[in-house]
Amino acid sequence: MLLESLGFVGGALVTCSLIPQVLRVFKLRSAHEISLLFTILLLLGVVFWLAYGLAFGLAPVILWNAASIALIVGLLYAKLKYGR
Asked: The CATH number of the domain where 63 resides is what?
């Protein structure tokens, strides 16, 4: 239970670290400083982590990577819309 708690807390911190960036990009309507390659690679990496979590039934990995995917997709959308 303690180890699973570490996963939930760690996942929450990493996922929540995306929130200020996503909010900033939408507030400023500017994503010039965000790398498209970074965003795509991050999204792919998190999708693979989600698949790993699903394969092994790891609740913290599933929860926080699914949430991260939503945030990263928002960031990717903003990059494509405001990044030019």
From this structure: 1.20.1280.290
Q: Is 34 left (phi over 0), alpha (psi -120 to 50) or beta?
A: beta
Closest CA to 12 of 76, 79, 59: 59
Count Cα neighbours of 4 within 13 Å in the Cβ-side half-sphere: 8
- Which range marks the domain in which residue 29 is found? 2-82
Number of structural domains the chain divides into = 1
Instruction: List the structure tokens of 33.
Output: 């400083």
Stretch (H or E) spanning 5: helix 2-16
Q: What is the pLDDT of residues 36-66, one digit of tens each?
A: 999 999 999 999 999 999 999 999 999 999 9
Q: pTM of the predicted model, to two decimals?
A: 0.93
